[in-house]
Design brief:
This protein is an alpha/beta fold and 396 residues long. The protein folds into three domains: 2-44 and 97-168 and 261-317, FAD/NAD(P)-binding domain (3-Layer(bba) Sandwich), CATH 3.50.50.60; 71-89 and 170-258, D-Amino Acid Oxidase, Chain A, domain 2 (2-Layer Sandwich), CATH 3.30.9; 337-395. 36% of the residues lie in helices and 28% in strands. The chain is built from 13 helices and 20 strands. The chain has helices spanning 13-24, 50-56, 96-109, 158-161, 230-239, 242-245, 289-309, 314-317, 319-343, 347-356, 359-366, 370-380, 385-395, and strands at residues 2-3, 6-9, 29-32, 47-49, 65-69, 71-75, 81-85, 91-94, 113-115, 118-126, 129-136, 139-145, 147-150, 173-182, 191-195, 205-212, 215-223, 248-258, 267-268, 271-273. The strands form four sheets. It has a seven-stranded mixed β-sheet with strand order 7-6-15-16-17-14-18, sandwiched between helices. A six-stranded mixed β-sheet has the order 9-3-2-13-20-19. The chain has a four-stranded mixed β-sheet with strand order 1-12-11-10, with no helix packed on it. It is globular. The structure holds flavin-adenine dinucleotide. Flavin-adenine dinucleotide (FAD) binds at residues 9-15, 32-35, 43-48, 119-120, 151-153, 155, 157, 176, 178, 219, 255, 257, 275-277, 281, 286-290, 292.
Length: 396
């Protein structure tokens, strides 16, 4: 049985970042992914805000940062638009397949062993280590390490197999369905376009994330329990927009996003849980690439301390929980409260907002600037007591 310092299950953004960090620190790392190709298929609209580049020390590379974004256009059900346009670039749409492959190449160059078509399916603690059985293209191999980092995404089984119940309720998931489309008309390729309304996307939105002038990820996320599928909402939206329906679908993606159900404890003996596997996702817009990579950094800080102390106990590893909540988790919990506000908005409320507020006002609301938000509420929305009641309840 081949031994490693750490075995990382999953080679998405969380797993690759964790493997790269530990490899750079000269630990012997194995990173496994059951997919046959890193980054493929993508289950993602590929948007990443500029702040994440700064926080993660990433330099946008034109190979994978394919479209500069300067803001967002938000559409009410009538398609009345509110534009949030920044003075400079506010983010990028990625070519995630290339982004992850580049990260995998760097991680491998730093000394980590990455294996694709390698499904980790059985885990057993034995004498301070975890033995992992991996199906590698039909052949079962075994590896062992004192530390497992579960970065196996929303479908994560690693944590459960090591005794942590990560199951959450159905309302804490959004279902996403997306087409990558070519030869379409995009209102403005420097903006992401988000369409709201109960008929458009219950508890969610339709998005157009441009990857070029006539090329975009067009998708929908819907939340909670629905009789209709996410695909049916997307198909209906596209059919009613001739600028989209005239184009071609060059890729179909679907997936599930955990938009809540944060875990109080993301650790156990010999185990750290990171990324979608720990539900570390922005509960309003479902973005998780940056959050997963930042969480990998925080988890690796704990891992490196554990290697120094030779202590992989649940008690020791728990410091990862408090560090993550201090840096990111508590902010995400506050955002979850705001999502509840949006869930309670009716179509007429979206129309009122689109009629009354500006892009700047929306920014203040979504960024948690309560003074700014109160200004919006009192000055502009006072004529709409129902809407004000909903907002105040959740903005407190
Ligand atoms: C429709 C949709 C649109 C999205 N759009 C955006 C967006 O625009 N911006 C954004 O920031 N986020 C977006 N997200 C969320 C984002 O994709 C995730 O938050 C992010 O990928 C999380 O990274 P991760 O590494 O934790 O998990 P993943 O990227 O899911 O990686 C997990 C990996 O683990 C592997 N794996 C699972 N089980 C095993 C096993 N037993 N053995 C070996 N390997 C295993 C999987 O094959 C996978 O490669 C979107 C999600 C969806 C579904």
């Amino acid at each position: 049985m081949q031994e490693f310092d750490a075995i990382i299950v999953g080679a998405g953004p969380a797993g690759l970042r964790a493997a790269n960090n530990l490899a750079k620190a000269k630990f012997k790392v194995l990173c496994l992914d059951k997919k046959q190709e890193i980054g493929v298929p993508k289950r993602c609209a590929e948007g990443l805000g500029l702040g994440w580049f700064e926080r993660l020390g990433l330099k946008p590379n034109p190979k994978w940062a394919v479209q500069e974004i300067e803001g967002a256009a938000l559409y009410a059900p009538s398609e009345k638009k509110v534009e949030l346009r920044f003075k400079s670039i506010s983010g990028y749409i990625l070519e995630r397949r290339v982004f992850e492959k580049e990260l995998a190449k760097e991680t491998s160059m730093n000394g980590a062993i990455i294996k694709t078509k390698a499904n980790a399916f059985a885990f057993k603690r034995n004498s301070g280590k975890v033995e992992v059985k991996v199906n590698e293209s039909g052949i079962v191999k075994e590896y062992a390490a004192p530390l497992i980092i579960a970065c196996d995404g929303v479908e994560s089984l690693t944590a459960r197999k090591l005794g942590v119940n990560t199951a959450i309720e159905i309302p804490d998931y959004d279902s996403g369905y997306q087409y990558e489309m070519a030869n379409i008309e995009i209102p403005d390729e420097k903006l992401i376009h988000l369409y709201f309304g109960t008929e458009v996307a219950p508890r969610g939105y339709v998005w157009i994330f441009p990857k070029g002038k006539n090329h975009a990820n067009v998708g929908v996320g819907i939340g909670g329990m629905n009789e209709k599928t996410a695909k049916s909402y997307l198909d209906k939206f596209i059919a009613s927009h001739p600028g989209l329906s005239k184009g071609s679908i060059i890729e179909v993606n679907c997936g599930c996003v955990p938009v809540g159900g944060f875990l109080d404890d993301m650790t156990a003996d010999n185990l750290l849980i990171v990324g979608d596997a720990a539900h570390q996702v922005n509960p309003i817009h479902g973005g998780g690439i940056g959050i997963a990579m930042e969480a990998a950094d925080i988890a690796c800080d704990t891992a490196i301390k554990a290697f120094k102390a030779k202590d992989f106990s649940h008690e020791f590893l728990q410091q990862y929980n408090s560090h993550w909540y201090e840096k990111r988790g508590n902010k995400l919990k506050a955002i979850l409260k705001k999502r509840m506000m949006f869930e309670n908005l009716k179509d007429k409320d979206f129309e009122t907002l689109a009629e009354s507020v500006t892009g700047d006002d929306i920014l203040k609301l979504t960024e948690g600037d309560l003074v700014g938000a109160a200004k919006v509420v009192t000055k502009k929305l006072i004529k709409y007591p129902g809407l004000v009641r909903v907002m105040l309840k959740y903005l407190k």
